[in-house]
Design a protein that fits this description.
3 domains; formyl-coa transferase, domain 3; 3-stranded antiparallel sheet; Ribosomal Protein S8, Chain: A, domain 1
């Protein structure tokens, strides 16, 4: 026990070994010694050798789940008429510079901002399925420490905002808070960026409307859990994203107000080419 210092962290979340190199050497030596004296295990081939080379290259750097974030069964309104045409009318053509999705339908050519589009999908998904419901928690491997210079009121509003989304936040000391767990649906979010964004949001104004706080929190979560520029997407992934976007209540813009797409009509294309 003398080799272990348990007083490194006030809450005992971290311990330190005084002779780490010697301990590592001891473990490696013991394992090597054991392996040298143990009888060799005869391995049997579990699989047949491939008769021809196979391409195992995986080009995807981002994976959109095969299950749509938005499905017809989850909507509060029926998909009919114009909505149905909006969902199924787009055909993906290409990804431009790993930033924009180029698609077409009978009305013309469309260019989608892939980040803004997924922000809108995530925002409405989080709003409809997550807010106000009880969800399983996921403990953070490294708890997040939040040091802030907010006023007492701003401090209370920040804690209330995170608590509303079932983030386990609690005081750490007089000037700091700590987050130890988050809902499982928030696990793929950049938690540190969400915290930084919310701290910046609360600076300045003394009091903020609770509804505005929730909208900003949703928008922040959507932003920091969405694909970014320079992320490669397959045609199937792009098509899924557009289908999900067209099922949203407000597909024309992201939660921050930026447009999700621009349209170039067939008439304008012909005009540009002097047709």
């Amino acid at each position: 026990l003398k080799l272990v210092d348990v007083n490194v962290h006030p809450s005992k979340w971290e311990v330190r070994l005084s002779k780490e190199k010697q301990l590592l050497h001891l473990i490696e030596t013991s394992i090597n010694e054991q392996l040298r004296h143990d009888p060799q295990i005869k391995l049997t081939r579990a699989f047949q050798s491939a008769s021809h080379p196979e391409d195992t290259h995986e080009p995807l750097v981002f994976d959109i789940p095969s299950t749509s974030y938005v499905s017809q069964n989850e909507l509060s309104y029926p998909i009919q008429g114009e909505m149905e045409r909006r969902v199924h009318g787009f055909r993906v053509l290409a990804q431009h510079h790993r930033k924009y999705i180029i698609a077409e339908n009978e009305d013309g050519l469309y260019i989608f901002d892939q980040h803004a589009s997924m922000e809108r999908v995530r925002y409405e998904y989080f709003k409809r399925k997550r807010l106000g419901k009880v969800h399983n928690q996921q403990a953070l491997l490294l708890p997040l420490l939040i040091s802030n210079k907010l006023s007492t009121l701003q401090h209370e509003q920040l804690v209330a905002a995170f608590s509303k989304f079932q983030v386990a936040i609690e005081p750490f000391d007089a000037n700091s808070l700590v987050i130890r767990s988050v809902p499982q649906w928030m696990s793929d979010t950049d938690h540190q960026k969400v915290i930084d964004d919310m701290l910046e949001y609360f600076e300045g104004d003394i009091r903020k409307n609770e509804e505005d706080i929730q909208k900003h929190m949703l928008a922040t979560l959507a932003c920091h859990s969405s694909i970014r520029f320079n992320n490669y997407l397959s045609v199937a992934q792009m098509q899924q994203l557009l289908d999900d976007l067209m099922l949203c209540e407000q597909p024309d813009h992201c939660p921050h107000g930026r447009p999700t797409f621009i349209k170039i009509s067939a008439k304008n294309l012909e005009k540009e080419f002097l047709r």
